[in-house]
């Protein structure tokens, strides 16, 4: 809920709620393509029948950068490790937290979690080493 | 189908002029293009204008008519937005319009005011070209996004920060005599390696600056050029556009830019030429790694080998095929909405022989411009040729 008036982004904030409750999901079309909400159509094939499936509990870091110059929304969080992690049907982008920055590297097994920005107090997607 | 000639080109200096309004920048660039092309403003039938962050930087939407007015043109005007490829998209639409025969004279260009936002504000404004929900809210910045692509590239194909540093050194060298460039200053590989880190592996000197500036071209039909006796030897003979998933995480490849490949293939086919025919290129080097991805996507270097092109001298001014003789985004500057059209300006001058660096490509007849939006979810490629 990063809108100034606190109005949620339906689909996305619902997904963060589910992640916080340990029930993260992805959307799967009849042809097996994975995607993330909010979504009414499979972006890969146009299939309109999408089902929620449990997100695999762990993923693998595919690429990592340590960001030293952030946007103002993350001013007090920098430096932080930003990574794209592969969860099989979908990839996710999040900050790797709870470990030394120099130890964050591709190949690391992580689980997704909901963290909080030290700058704004807003929720964000984070990864923790498994 | 009418051929599309570049009748006139104009640029403001790119740089740090926070007090100058977008309308003033565009007025200067368009006046330069009308002077260059000897085309009366009254003949212009439309304005195709690129701009990305006008709402954030100037609290100004609906910029098309504003810019037509600033240019002294009485004609319908539309703003095109495709992040950093905004004016590349405007160029493409104008080319298509003239080809249909519907218009003979169009003013095309772009402008961006950025430095008034400061570094933090501009970083935030640029980030809106990424997926707000799934990327920006996790802390992604644009240097961060390209850093993720660079790390993925190193992992897949090899290479290191020093290889990237040679690209920055080359583009600064090219900008030295370019009076429109933001940085007319030589740098060394050591400078790049030792510069403050922005997002690993990318440092300050791997990144284009935050810039203010505007660019314009006057495009005319072949018939108009002939009927009015214009000296317009350069034509835009190929145009292509490619798209991709918005978020980097949703792409099949993290270290390639398929949208640019699609755009390049379309533009080459449209022009009836091949990558081997290309003598010179201006590509979208917003970060050093972006030049690598661009020249590979355009088939100017094999995939996985673009990383060594600058280091080994293939793309330097004296090399086989110079890349970014203007200085590129890296040294010339990157007022984002102006960049795509500015590449057409620089290439036209390089091919006409009146660019400050034309001596390096004195026999060139084919040039390519590559303009990318976001992490290349939008790509525009144009082929320019000397047609006399």
Automatic annotation (TrEMBL), chain A:
This is Zn-ribbon domain-containing OB-fold protein. Residues 53-112 form the ChsH2 C-terminal OB-fold domain. Pfam families: OB_ChsH2_C (PF01796). It comes from the Archaea. Signal peptide: none annotated. The lineage of its organism: Archaea, Methanobacteriati, Methanobacteriota, Stenosarchaea group, Halobacteria.
TrEMBL record, chain B:
Residues 240-385 form the Thiolase C-terminal domain. Signal peptide: none annotated. The keyword Glycoprotein does not apply. Keywords: Isoprene biosynthesis. Residues 6-222 form the Thiolase N-terminal domain. The keyword Phosphoprotein does not apply. PANTHER family: ACETYL-COA C-ACETYLTRANSFERASE, ACETYL-COA C-ACYLTRANSFERASE. This is 3-ketoacyl-CoA thiolase. It comes from Natronoglomus mannanivorans.
């Amino acid at each position: 809920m990063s809108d100034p008036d606190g109005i949620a982004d339906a689909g996305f904030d619902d997904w963060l709620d589910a992640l916080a409750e340990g029930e993260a999901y992805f959307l799967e079309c009849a042809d097996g393509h994975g995607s993330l909400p909010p979504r009414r159509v499979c972006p890969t094939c146009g299939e309109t029948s999408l089902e929620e499936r449990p997100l695999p509990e762990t993923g693998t870091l595919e690429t990592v950068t340590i960001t030293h110059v952030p946007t103002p929304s993350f001013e007090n969080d920098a430096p932080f490790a930003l990574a794209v992690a592969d969860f099989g049907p979908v990839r996710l982008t999040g900050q790797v937290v709870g470990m030394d920055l120099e130890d964050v590297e591709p190949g690391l097994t992580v689980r997704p979690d909901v963290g909080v920005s030290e700058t704004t107090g807003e929720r964000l997607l984070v990864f923790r080493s498994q | 189908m009418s051929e599309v000639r570049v009748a006139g080109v104009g640029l403001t200096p790119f740089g740090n002029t926070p007090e100058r309004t977008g309308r003033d920048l565009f007025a200067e660039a368009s006046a330069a293009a009308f002077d260059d092309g000897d085309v009366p403003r009254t003949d212009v039938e439309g304005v195709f204008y690129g701009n990305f962050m006008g709402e954030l930087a100037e609290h100004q939407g609906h910029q098309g008519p504003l810019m037509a007015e600033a240019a002294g043109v009485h004609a319908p005007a539309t703003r095109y937005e495709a992040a950093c490829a905004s004016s590349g998209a405007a160029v493409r639409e104008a080319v298509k319009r003239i080809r249909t025969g519907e218009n003979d004279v169009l003013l095309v260009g772009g402008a961006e005011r950025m430095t008034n936002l400061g570094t933090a504000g501009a970083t935030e404004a640029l980030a809106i070209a990424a997926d707000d929900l799934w990327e920006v809210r996790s802390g992604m910045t644009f240097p961060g996004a390209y850093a993720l692509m660079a790390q993925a590239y190193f992992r897949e194909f090899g290479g290191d920060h020093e290889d990237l540093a040679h690209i920055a050194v080359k583009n600064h060298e090219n900008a030295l005599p370019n009076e429109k460039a933001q940085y007319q200053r030589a740098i060394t590989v050591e400078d790049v390696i030792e510069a403050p880190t922005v997002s690993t592996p990318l440092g300050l000197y791997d990144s284009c600056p935050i810039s203010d500036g505007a660019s314009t071209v006057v495009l005319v039909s072949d018939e108009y050029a002939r009927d009015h006796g214009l000296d317009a030897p350069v034509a835009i003979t190929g145009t292509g556009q490619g798209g991709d998933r918005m978020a980097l995480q949703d792409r099949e490849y993290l270290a390639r830019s398929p949208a640019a490949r699609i755009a390049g293939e379309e533009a080459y086919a449209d022009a009836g030429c091949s990558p081997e025919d290309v003598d010179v290129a201006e590509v979208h080097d917003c970060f050093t790694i972006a030049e690598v991805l661009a020249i590979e996507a355009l088939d100017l270097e094999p995939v996985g080998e673009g990383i060594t092109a600058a280091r080994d001298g293939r793309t330097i001014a004296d090399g086989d095929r110079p890349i970014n003789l203007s200085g590129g985004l890296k040294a010339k500057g990157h007022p984002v909405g102006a960049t795509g059209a500015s590449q057409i300006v620089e290439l036209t001058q390089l091919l006409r022989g009146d660019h400050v660096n034309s001596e390096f490509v004195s026999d060139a007849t084919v040039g390519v411009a590559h303009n990318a939006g976001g992490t290349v979810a939008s790509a525009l490629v144009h082929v320019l040729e000397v047609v006399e």
